[in-house]
Amino acid sequence: MALNEKLINDKIINYNQNPDISVVLPSFNKENMLLKSIRSIQNQKFKNIEIIIVNDCSNDNSFKIFNYLLETEPRIRIFHHITNMGVFRTRLDGILYSRGKYIILFDTGDLYEDNYVLQDAYNIIEKYNLDSCKFLFRVIRSFNNLNNSRVFFHVGNNAKIVYETSNIKALNNKVFSNWGNIWNRLVRANIYIKGLLLYSELVLNLYKNVWDDAWYNSIVNKASNSYAIFDRVGYVYLQDGRGAGSPRARTIDQKSNVVMEYVGFLYFHYNFYGKDQKVKDYIINKLKDYNETHFDLRLQNFRSHYEVLNNLLEALINDSELSLENRTYCQKLLDESIFREKEVNRSKYASL
After folding, report:
1. Is 5 within the bounds of a domain?
2. For residues 48 and 246, which has the higher predicted lDDT (pLDDT)?
3. Mean confidence (pLDDT) of the chain
4. What does the pLDDT read at residue 301?
5. Residue 142 pLDDT more than 80?
6. 49 has which bridge partners?
7. Domain termination site, one of 238, 267, 288
8. Has residue 4 been placed in a domain?
9. Phi and psi of 177, rounded to 5°?
10. What is the per-residue DSSP string for 149-214?
């Protein structure tokens, strides 16, 4: 499904800054946890919010809870997918449907640490006129033992502190790790939209099921000029292995799509950060890893999306800063990819 570019442009031109914060929740078969999460958001002392739930084709009893919430909470808006599209696309739709000045993503099944998280984050981002504000989070295995947790702090190793007070560090651009989680980050809505427009249609439509946090952090990092890390635990993440909005990949086709999505992520990094030799070395090593190490995730198992892989390989082949050995290796991978693509197409036509 293609992105609704008109909707993106309309949000930029006709921006509605009421409410102040849009909380976006993807939901897929979370009937046992949905109400607990919603209550955590409703209990926030910061009240000028909207709660956007995007139902990613749930087949449990979530609809009963949806109907109850619509009847009892005027700040809730619910949208439904007719097919399961994965957490990346579900979050994206929530962002596009949002009307707030700021957006914060939230995984259905999780909690806020206390009732002042959104108020504190809002105060920080407004006071320092920042593009986004990030806070710490805890990981739990069960709601029955909230003390069994770890606190994470995702930030790049070369963070440059611009200024510092007793409870906040504001950082320069390209500092947050792309691999950090995204649901502990309050972001100006126009930063999300600006970041989305930096991506090609091909790249955006590949990424539906995995590494969505990394993608959304990349979107925000690329479009932002200023970040802040708020030194307080604000989010409780339930690590139950189910994810927020998509089934796990199990078949060869599904697993090959997972690898394909990661190759696209490498292609994005090459386009934006390819002048860094460490980035190039990382990309080459990952290509070798998937081509030679992981039996069930090898490049040869791909069934579709050859375009993004071939584009990446062609770019690497034409990169004069790469060693001849690495360029030759990429040429070998490209030749194999073109051969497999022809074989797949031949099989398709033979079955018609």
Report:
1. no
2. 48
3. 77
4. 57
5. no
6. 21
7. 238
8. no
9. -65, 130
10. -EEE----TT--EEEE-SSEEEE-SS-S-TTS-STTEEEEHHHHHHHHTTS-HHHHTT-SSS-HHH
The first and second tokens of residue 141, run together, are: 């295995």
Question: pLDDT tens digit string along 4-41?
Answer: 455 555 555 455 558 999 999 999 998 888 999 999 99
Q: Which residues pair with 199 in a beta bridge?
A: none
pTM of the full predicted structure?
A: 0.71
Give the tokens for residue 241: 């292995």
Contact indicator for 249, 258 with CB cutoff of 8 Å: yes
Residue type, 253: D
**Phi and psi at residue 235, to the nearest 5°:** -135, 140
Distance CA 107, CA 98 (A): 16
Residues whose CB is less than 8 angstroms from the CB of residue 184 and which lie 6 or more positions away in sequence, other chains included: 134, 135, 136, 137, 234, 235
**Is the CB of residue 203 less than 8 Å from the CB of residue 270?**
no
Whether 1 is covered by a domain: the verdict is no
Q: Pairing between strand 102-105 and 76-80?
A: unpaired
Whether 215 and 267 map to the same domain: the answer is no
* Of 97, 113, 72, residue with least CA distance to 4: 97
**Of 88, 19, 4, 8, which is closest to residue 52 (Cα–Cα)?**
19
Relative to beta strand 227-238, strand 168-171 is antiparallel
Closest CA to 17 of 48, 46, 45: 48
| C-beta separation of 316 from 263 below 8 A | no
CA count, 13 A, side-chain hemisphere, 296: 8
Do 247 and 60 form a contact (C-beta atoms < 8 A)? Answer: no
Give the chain's domain count: 2
Distance (Å, whole) CA 335 – CA 306: 12
